[in-house]
Amino acid sequence: MIPFVRKTDALVTCEEMQLIYEKIRTPKKLGAVIKWENDFVDCPSIFRHGDRFYMYFIAISKDTRVSGYETHLAKSADLVNWEYVGPVFRRNDLNHWDSKQVAGYAAFFDTEFGGSNGLVKVNDSYYITYLAGNSDGYEPDPLLMGMAKTSDPTAADSFIRFEDPILTPQDADSRPKETKTLYKSYVFTDPKNSTGHPYVNCFNAKGEDNRERLFLAVSDDGEHWERWGEHAIIDLASDGPCDFISGDPQIVLIDDIYVMFFFRFGSGAGAYDSFACSKNLVDWTVWDGEPLIKPEFAWENVHAHKPWVIKHDGRVYHFYCAVNNKNERYIALAVSE
Predict the structure, then answer these.
(1) Please, are residues 262 and 252 in contact by the beta-carbon 8 Å criterion?
(2) 97, 207, 246, 267 - which has most CB atoms within 10 Å?
(3) Which pairing describes strands 303-312 and 315-324: parallel, antiparallel, or unpaired?
C-alpha cells in the first residue's frame, strides 16, 4: 500500500462546486432506455467507438437465489434509442473464482468531460474490469475484482479474462474497511499524474461493518494494481448521521478539477446520485446541495442511482439505475435542457 498526504489547502471551493453543478445537472428525465421483463438491469457504462455509442451493462435474473451477475452489450446512434448486441460475460460451471458473478464496467474511458467519450487503448488493448465471485445470489460475499482485455470493445464475446483477480479483500495491503467485498471499479488514465502513477482505479468496498466507502489503487502498467492511501478517499459511513453506501464511482476532468459521480444511500430515503470534486485525488469536497438524480416518479420510487455521465454535442446525458416498488430495476436516462 502506498501512503498519501492530505493537503487541505487544495480543497475545491463552494463557488467552484456550484459552477461544476451547473455544468453537469440533468433535470429532464426521459425514462427507461434498457428494461428487461425477467431480469434486473443495472450499472451502465457508455462509450463512443467509431460512429456509434456502446453500453456495457449488467443483468441478473429476478430469481436471485439461483442466479448471478452477467455482462451485456448494447449500441446506439443517438444515446437515447438502444439495440441489444449480445452477452459479454456469461456465468459458467467451471468452479473458478469468477464463475458465478461477472459484472463488467468499461475501463480507461476518456477522462476529459465532453471529449472523445471513447476508450483509451492501453498496451494496445481495450479493457474491462469486473466484479467477480463464485457463489450464486445477489452480491454474495466475498466479491473480487477481475480484469479482461480485447482488441475490439464492440465485439460482445471477445474479451479474454485474466487468470487471477487484480484485487481481493484478502490482499496483504487491504485496508481495514475493505476486507469483506470489492464492488464496482472505475479505472482511468490520469493526464495530471496526481498519484505519480499513470493509471488509477477507484472502487467502492465493504468492511466488517457492512458499509461501503470509496478507495483508490494505482498501476504503472494498467494491469497490476497496488492500493493507494491508508484509508478511503470518501468515507461518509463512519461518523454521526451517515450513509451506508458511497458507491459506483466515475471520475472525469472538468478543466483541472476531478469530478467524481457516485451514489449515496443512507437511512429514510432511497439511493441517489451526487458528486464530489478534487484537485489532487486525495482531498475531496462532497456536494451537499440538490442531488443530481433522486427518486421522484412512480417508475423510480425506490432508488435512482449508479451514475454514468457523458457530454456529447453540448448535451449532458446521465444514465442511471431506476428501481421501483413493482420489482423493476432498469437503466434510465436524464439529460440537460
Answers:
(1) no
(2) 246
(3) antiparallel
* Residue 272: inside a domain: yes
In a domain, 327, yes or no: no
Q: Which amino acid is at 86?
A: G
pLDDT at 2: 73
Judge contact between 309 and 11, C-beta under 8 A: no
Please give the average pLDDT of every successive group of 10 residues along the chain, which has 337 residues: 68 95 98 98 98 98 95 98 98 97 98 98 98 97 98 96 98 96 98 97 96 97 97 88 91 97 91 97 95 97 98 98 98 96
Alpha carbon distance 316, 33 (integer Å): 16
Strands 226-228 and 245-254: unpaired
Query: Would you state the cell numbers that stand for residue 234, as one nine-digit string?
Result: 470518501
At residue 47, what are phi and psi to the nearest 5 degrees?
-150, 160
Give the C-alpha separation, 170 to 80, whole Å. 41
Please tell me the predicted confidence (pLDDT) of residue 337. Answer: 81
Q: What is the CATH number of the domain that holds 49?
A: 2.115.10.20
* C-alpha triplet 195, 198, 199: angle, nearest 5°: 90
Q: What is the CA radius of gyration of the chain?
A: 18
Task: Please name which of 214, 259, 308, 279 lies closest in space to residue 26, comparing C-alpha atoms.
Answer: 308
Copy the grid coordinates of residue 66.
439461483
Residue 226: all three cell numbers together? 497496488
pLDDT for res 193: 96
